[in-house]
Specification:
Layout lengths: L28 H25 L3 E7 L1 E4 L1 H4 L2 E9 L2 E4 L5 E6 L6 E2 L4 E5 L2 H37 L4 H33 L2 E3 L4 E6 L6 E2 L13 E4 L4 E8 L11 E6 L7 E13 L4 E8 L11 E6 L2 H5 L4 E6 L4 E3 L2 E8 L2 E6 L1 E6 L2 E6 L6 E4 L11 E3 L2
Parallel strand pairs: 1-24
Antiparallel strand pairs: 1-23, 2-17, 3-12, 3-16, 4-11, 5-7, 5-10, 6-9, 7-8, 9-11, 12-15, 13-14, 13-16, 14-15, 17-22, 18-19, 19-20, 21-22
Helix pairs in contact: 3-4
């Protein structure tokens, strides 16, 4: 029996070199690469979608349009309003409660026709009293006259003295004066009664009704609850257009110059007109001169206070061939870095367009270059607006 102890075989102990890195900690480079990829995606997404998420500026827009015919021929265009040159706030000279109003807006009245009436029952009573006083004064004068003539005969026969005769004469003269005073009192009350009837001062049309039945009417409307006038009356045959022409262009306007009036309410209708008067003073605040333009022909559609555009023609402009011109509202034009620009709508964004201006045509401006007909442009662009800015068009 082998008594020697068993010895392990050391040759079996080997190191597996293929697994020499298994016990080392894993690298975190892949995490860094993932975060870098996420960051790049965020940056790309921001630049890709920032236009969609950027806040929009609310704006109003207008359209560049072609003007032709007389609009293109006009040497000057101005805006104004239709005004009745003969117009009155019809009021009462007396004070009282409005008892009757026979007309409404749009009704025609004739000169002297009664429009309204104030409560005059107290004045009628005063008139009756004044007439009664007149009758008494007449009766007194008749009695004094008979007594005067009787005393005159007695004085001539020597039956009465000078003093008695003069007394009778004085009584008679006082009676005549009393009659005159009573007649004057009657006339005063009659005038007061007439003042309660509100009459039309001229032929015209009632534009507005300023008081209703039951309200107090006073000549100067000193009270907050009283009315100064009953109706507003206008002579529709005296309608004209009052247009403000800038001082720099007033040299293009002459009295008698042919014009054309276009009402904003009826843009397709052209009314022949002429310059009636150039008011010889300027408005310092607005740097304009008031020009009155009279209608040569008009119809019943022309109403006071309508807004209007006036095309002023010169001889040369009338004789030249009819052309066309591109124009935009003045409020669309602004400046950026000494350049005249507009902001044209391009989808949900705007682009800055440099333009060249031409003539001033009232509220419109001629565009010589930079735009085309039909282009939508921003009205009254904000001072900080720039090309590429996102917008939202408001109604």
């Amino acid at each position: 029996m082998d008594s020697q102890p068993h010895k392990p075989d050391l040759s079996l102990l080997k190191i597996d070199k293929s697994k020499k890195f298994d016990d080392k900690p894993r690298s975190k480079k892949w995490l860094i690469l993932v975060w870098l990829a996420v960051l790049v995606a965020i940056v790309v997404g921001y630049f890709q979608f920032r236009e969609q998420v950027a806040p929009a500026t609310k704006v109003r827009t207008a359209t560049a349009s072609l003007l032709s015919g007389s609009d293109a021929q006009a040497a000057l265009v101005a805006t104004g309003y239709v005004v009745a040159q003969r117009k009155a706030e019809v009021a009462s000279k007396g004070t009282g409660r409005l008892e009757r109003l026979d007309f409404e807006e749009g009704d025609s009245v004739r000169s002297g026709q009664v429009i309204a009436e104030l409560d005059n029952s107290d004045i009628e009573a005063n008139l009756s009293l004044a007439k009664a006083n007149l009758q008494r004064a007449v009766a007194d004068s008749l009695n004094a006259g008979r007594q005067y003539r009787r005393n005159k005969d007695l004085f001539a026969s020597g039956s009465i003295n000078q003093t008695q005769f003069e007394t009778a004469e004085n009584v008679y003269q006082m009676a005549i004066a009393g009659v005159n005073a009573a007649e004057a009192s009657v006339r005063v009350v009659e005038v007061a009664l007439e003042n309660t009837f509100i009459r039309a001062p001229f032929d015209g049309t009632i534009l507005t009704k300023n008081a209703d039945v039951g309200e107090i009417v006073a000549p100067f409307a000193s009270s907050a609850s009283s009315k100064g006038s009953v109706v507003t009356l206008a002579d529709m045959s005296s309608l004209e257009v009052e247009a403000d022409v800038s001082e720099s262009n007033i040299n293009k306007v002459l009295v008698g110059q042919p014009c054309e009036i276009v009402l904003d309410a009826y843009p397709d209708t052209r009314y022949k007109a002429r310059v009636k008067k150039i008011v010889p003073t300027a408005d310092r605040a607005r740097a304009t001169v008031l020009t009155k333009v009279a209608f040569i022909e008009k119809d019943s559609r022309v109403l006071p206070e309508m807004s209007a555009r006036v095309n002023f023609f010169s001889d040369t402009s009338q004789s030249r061939a009819i052309g066309s011109m591109l124009a935009v509202p003045k409020d669309c034009i602004t400046s950026r870095e000494s350049a005249t620009v507009v902001f044209r709508v391009n989808g949900d964004f705007v682009e800055q367009i440099v333009i060249q201006k031409g003539r001033e045509l009232g509220s419109m401006t001629e565009i010589l270059s930079g735009l085309s007909a039909g282009d939508r442009i921003v009205l009254s662009p904000p001072g900080k607006m720039a090309g590429g800015q996102k917008i939202e068009i408001s109604q």
